[in-house]
């Protein structure tokens, strides 16, 4: 050790004996060992000052050095993307572009329905009143106890399918094309009497599945008079006053049943009124309703025959469609001409209306086919 | 020895991070928290639990609900209240409670069973311990009765072992295949245990229209003899009802051993509703919708309902059903009246 110390020129001056020489030697070697004693002392002080300054600033530098621009940029972009997604998928915005199930009652639905029926439906003052009130009351009622079940009865061509189409359009913009509106035609969807058990199962599964997706579903059953008696019994549970059935609530759904059953009875009542000289608009719902309910129930062809639907009074409203008179047929023709964009020629109008057949044989007031086949006749008279 | 020393040397930095005090404290707090969270009294306010054995039903609340919501059924109210309170205050019942509710349509059978279910399980029909079976929906095909029998037995057994206080409601008993109900007869009997599961605390409710015409006849007889409706006693109806339902091929209980073995605890008759009860229903519906009660509208809606028998016209054909629909028609008048009242 003594030999090493004596090797360095500065060591001769700071040598403090054998014991502490090792430590002193090490110190001298660290400070670089150049210059005089005073310079060496100054250097020491400056070095320690710098070191102290560096140490003090180090905590401030560490987090800043962690902020990597690329990852920070990605994080901000990700946050913005999720905010945008949340905004876009918010139902109100989303529902402008895609079709949504009707969650909250839209006040416009009832008003649109009223206006459509006033404008497009001819000669059915009873239907106007009942359907609008029924649908409006049902949609407004947040606490409905059972689904709305309407039964539309009447002569052919009087507007039953038309009204169901208008109702569908007022609730769902796409109307019958909507994926929440389901139309069943008895002769098409349930043709074979021997497969009735299969139809029952399928129908129940279909209704259950669709109502669990969208509680405000609309089901239209056409040609009820052709439906197998007893098939409708399979959906009776859904129309009843239950709160929940297997976890699904059916209380917001709407069921519409269309049929020709009871048409003779309605015509009888209308004819009575006409024969007694009373106006058509005098016919009240109560005049027809009671007579209708019993006759539909007992008619073997009605599809409701001895069915529990009427037994349990699960049909909320029986809506009668009166047969169309001559003046209503003319209105139909006029609307058809206008919709095709032709000029309305009163002469042709009268001729077309006269061509339709009317009943009963003596009085000849009501059109046999209602407003059907009018457009076919139109093609014949307007040639192009 | 060197290998062990080397291993210890490797673990030493990790061990150095485990401060014993803080780790011990963390474990202690975590286990205490778990213990607290899984304790039923805390846990059950968030998730639905099966009611414990010691829980008693609130008799006064049930009585008040029955009095305010159920109209015109003095017999049903009395019987059900006594039956349910007696059953729930009995620490060890000998058999499950079996009620059979009979009556005309729209008189309140489903409604009463709903109120009962809500008192046993607060979530009512939505509770996972309350099960509703509809004959036309759940057991539709006659040729599959064997499958239904087995499924029904398994379902009941499984659910009662999960929660002994389960409630089973069978609706449309008159449409159920005779003999399907025989499948659950063993559960209703006086056994202490069946295959390790005790059914003694469960409640079974059967709803049907069978016997409705018999009840109507009896009520009509009372009316024609000038006696008041409230004077009809259970003993006037019960024996006639039991035999009538037993012999009626459509009752679903036809020749079933349920009545044979007297496994039905109570036959609860529902009397047909009169004019004044229909009006009460209408008023309740109007209040529920927030309209002011206008007697004119109440009278108008009540007049639209049909009544039987043809001459006397005292009892409503549909009970209180379709009242809502008829109210919709008069709704605009009702709204105007409400607005006028201010």
TrEMBL record, chain A:
GO terms for molecular function: ATP binding; ATP hydrolysis activity; kinesin binding. Residues 324-381 form the Torsin-1A C-terminal domain. GO terms for biological process: nuclear membrane organization; protein localization to nucleus. Homohexamer. Interacts with TOR1B; the interaction may be specific of neural tissues. Interacts (ATP-bound) with TOR1AIP1 and TOR1AIP2; the interactions induce ATPase activity. Interacts with KLHL14; preferentially when ATP-free. Interacts with KLC1 (via TPR repeats); the interaction associates TOR1A with the kinesin oligomeric complex. Interacts with COPS4; the interaction associates TOR1A with the CSN complex. Interacts with SNAPIN; the interaction is direct and associates SNAPIN with the CSN complex. Interacts with STON2. Residues 1-13 have a biased composition (Low complexity). Keywords: Cell projection, Cytoplasmic vesicle, Endoplasmic reticulum, Glycoprotein, Hydrolase, Membrane, Nucleus, Synapse. It is found in: Cell projection, Growth cone; Cytoplasmic vesicle membrane; Endoplasmic reticulum; Nucleus membrane. InterPro entries: ClpA/B, P-loop_NTPase, TOR1A_C, Torsin. Belongs to the ClpA/ClpB family. Torsin subfamily. It catalyses: ATP + H2O = ADP + phosphate + H(+). This is Torsin-1A. It is a peripheral membrane protein. Pfam families: TOR1A_C, Torsin. GO terms for cellular component: cytoplasmic vesicle membrane; endoplasmic reticulum lumen; growth cone; nuclear membrane; synapse. Residues 1-40 are annotated as: Disordered. It comes from the Eukaryota.
UniProtKB/TrEMBL annotation, chain B:
This is Torsin. Residues 273-328 form the Torsin-1A C-terminal domain. One of its GO terms (biological process) is protein localization to nucleus. Residues 1-17 form the signal peptide. InterPro entries: ClpA/B (IPR001270), P-loop_NTPase (IPR027417), TOR1A_C (IPR049337), Torsin (IPR010448), Torsin_1/2 (IPR017378). Its main location: membrane. GO terms for cellular component: endoplasmic reticulum lumen; nuclear envelope. GO terms for molecular function: ATP binding; ATP hydrolysis activity; kinesin binding. It is found in: Endomembrane system; Endoplasmic reticulum lumen; Nucleus. ATP binds at residues 103-110. Gene3D superfamilies: P-loop containing nucleotide triphosphate hydrolases (3.40.50.300). Keywords: ATP-binding, Endoplasmic reticulum, Glycoprotein, Hydrolase, Membrane, Nucleotide-binding, Nucleus, Signal. Belongs to the ClpA/ClpB family. Torsin subfamily. It holds the Pfam family TOR1A_C.
